[in-house]
Design a protein that fits this description.
Elements: E1 5-15, E2 18-26, E3 39-40, E4 43-45, H1 52-64, E5 74-75, E6 79-80, E7 86-93, E8 105-109, E9 117-121, E10 123-130, H2 131-137, H3 143-154
Parallel strand pairs: 1-7
Antiparallel strand pairs: 1-2, 1-4, 2-3, 2-10, 5-7, 6-7, 8-9
Helix pairs in contact: 2-3
Length: about 160
């Protein structure tokens, strides 16, 4: 079986000299009471034959309800997460109102083995984080994306 691949956008903005990144919190019952290492860049699975950047742009809108901000997304080096999934990401400078996030939904049997299907938002909240805070909030496997953005912005 081929390892899964996903694509997403690492949106960032400048607040004076401080860089902030936009992260989303996964919806659904598994993530309800989790905060540290429970956030992600908006991303989704690349389907066979789909373009990775097109997937990243589509997933940003689906998971947040926002149009992709104007500008040219710049590719980051793909990262491999612990479960084997490869994440392709692009950085893009822009600004959105994290409080206004509106996500698509998914259906899940909950509680398990209850026979009851419930609908949950794919993303239940979003926020802007300074880089150091983002490193503690984002899934461990995605910290490298934040590091790459910081390197790019510092000119390293």
């Amino acid at each position: 079986m081929k390892a899964k691949q996903s694509a997403g956008l690492l949106l960032y903005r400048m607040r004076g000299a401080r860089v902030e990144v936009f992260l989303v919190h996964s919806g659904g019952p598994f993530w309800t009471n989790k905060d540290l290492a429970a956030w992600s860049i908006p991303k989704g699975e690349i389907e066979t034959g789909d373009d990775a950047l097109a997937t990243a742009l589509r997933e940003f809108t689906e998971e947040t309800g926002f149009a992709v901000p104007a500008g040219e997304p710049l590719p980051l080096r793909p990262i491999k997460q612990a479960g084997g999934k490869t994440v392709h990401a692009w950085s893009l400078q822009g600004d959105v109102d994290a409080e206004a996030v509106r996500s698509n939904t998914f259906t899940l049997e909950w509680p398990p083995r209850s026979g009851q299907l419930r609908t949950f938002p794919e993303v239940d909240k979003a926020a802007w984080f300074a880089l150091d805070d983002a490193r503690t909030k984002v899934h461990t496997g995605q910290v490298g994306l934040i590091d790459q953005l910081e390197e790019r912005l510092s000119g390293s």
